[in-house]
Write a structure and sequence with these properties.
85 residues, NUDE, 2 helices, 75% helix, single chain, microtubule binding, mainly alpha, NudE neurodevelopment protein 1 like 1, coiled coil
């Protein structure tokens, strides 16, 4: 930090209040980001479990997904870029 954006303080009390308010702001931002991360991780675990269940079900029923070959994917991507606006 090079000191840009930090106001001049007329007293130690004013400076202390400034830094305390700033730290509370960053703490709140951190907590919100942490909560979002936890929510994302929970959603990811649920999705993973659902996909795993679908894969097991497909394996048991004998139906498997057919993935396109790399050449097919290349053709699809080429067509997309040629005809996209």
């Amino acid at each position: 930090m090079d000191g840009e954006g930090i106001p001049d303080f007329s007293s130690l009390k004013e400076e202390t209040a400034y830094w305390k308010e700033l730290s509370l702001k960053y703490k709140q931002s951190f907590q919100e980001a942490r909560d979002e991360l936890v929510e994302f991780q929970e959603g990811s675990r649920e999705l993973e479990a659902e996909l795993e269940a679908q894969l097991v079900q497909a394996a048991c029923s004998g139906s498997y997904w057919v993935l396109p070959s790399p050449g097919t994917l290349r053709d699809i991507n080429t067509g997309y870029f040629l005809f996209s606006p």
